[in-house]
Structure formats: structure tokens, C-alpha cells
Amino acid sequence: MDPCENCGGEDHRSDACPVPRCYTCLKLGHIARVCPDQICRNCHQRGHEARDCKDMKP
Ligand SMILES: [Zn+2]
Ligand SMILES: [Zn+2]
Ligand SMILES: [Zn+2]
């Protein structure tokens, strides 16, 4: 069996991979929702989404 394309594990395929992969930074182990490298479209600071932005104006 080929190793998992996602995490390189050899005991499963990528479509059954238990390791989350972030599509924002492409790192393993977390999802984009909680990505520490994501950039807020509202205040352009790192670490949160625009919907979670504390600087959001009403
Ligand atoms: Zn995997
Ligand atoms: Zn990430
Ligand atoms: Zn923000």
C-alpha cells in the first residue's frame, strides 16, 4: 500500500486519514478554522477569522 498522501502514514490511505490538514497553511494537525497562520480579512492580523474578529465594527 502506498503511504498516505496527507500525513505519510503507511497504515491508511489519504481518504481515511485521521490527521487533520489545514488548507490555509497546508500544515498537519489542525484545521483552517483554528489555524494560527490564518489572516483576518477584517483587521489583517494573524490567528483568527474575520467572523471571530474583535475589531469588527457594527
Ligand atoms: Zn494520513
Ligand atoms: Zn493552518
Ligand atoms: Zn481581525
UniProtKB/TrEMBL annotation:
Task: Please state every residue range assigned to the domain named CCHC-type.
Answer: 21-37, 40-55
SUPFAM superfamilies in the record? Retrovirus zinc finger-like domains
The record, for InterPro entries, names: Znf_CCHC, Znf_CCHC_sf
Reply yes or no: does the keyword Cell membrane apply: no
Give yes or no: UniProt keyword Zinc-finger.
yes
Alphabetized, the UniProt keywords read:
Metal-binding, Zinc, Zinc-finger
Pfam name, any one: zf-CCHC
Recall the GO molecular function terms of this protein's record: nucleic acid binding; zinc ion binding
**Name of the molecule in the record:** CCHC-type domain-containing protein
